[in-house]
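Reopening this one. Same input as before:
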Amino acid sequence: DAYIARSDKLVKSRGQASDPTNPYENPPGPTFLEFSKAVLYDGKKDMHWAVFEQWCAPCHVAYSAVVKFETLNIDNLFVLRKSGLNVTGFEGHSNPTSAGGTREATWKTYFRMLDRELLGRYKERYTVDCEMFGYDCDVSQFY
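Same output, byte for byte:
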């Protein structure tokens, strides 16, 4: 899919060898470690991993709603109602992890794969975004 192709291209553009700790024989894309290194060390701009203010101009647009993925169903209903649209039959969105775990357990598993330097780089890069959207950016929970 397009996401895997884009992330794989990002990793390969760094000229690095595949991660020998990758548990998959023929992975469909980079490991989280490979991807994290590409995102945090590479100068390329990818709007999916850029800080919010770089792409969305929060100070220049009068947003009427902020939708968060964690509360997507509730937020979508709010936006639909405020827009005067019919919400009858709206079933919401479900995005379970392929492993069947919780979202929090899944992302914590991934971030625990990273060393302190990479965790620090994530914190440095995304602290403003974490504060803006009410996320905990304390990476010490992964040490």
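So the earlier flakiness isn't reproducible anymore. For the record, The chain is about 45% helix and 0% strand.
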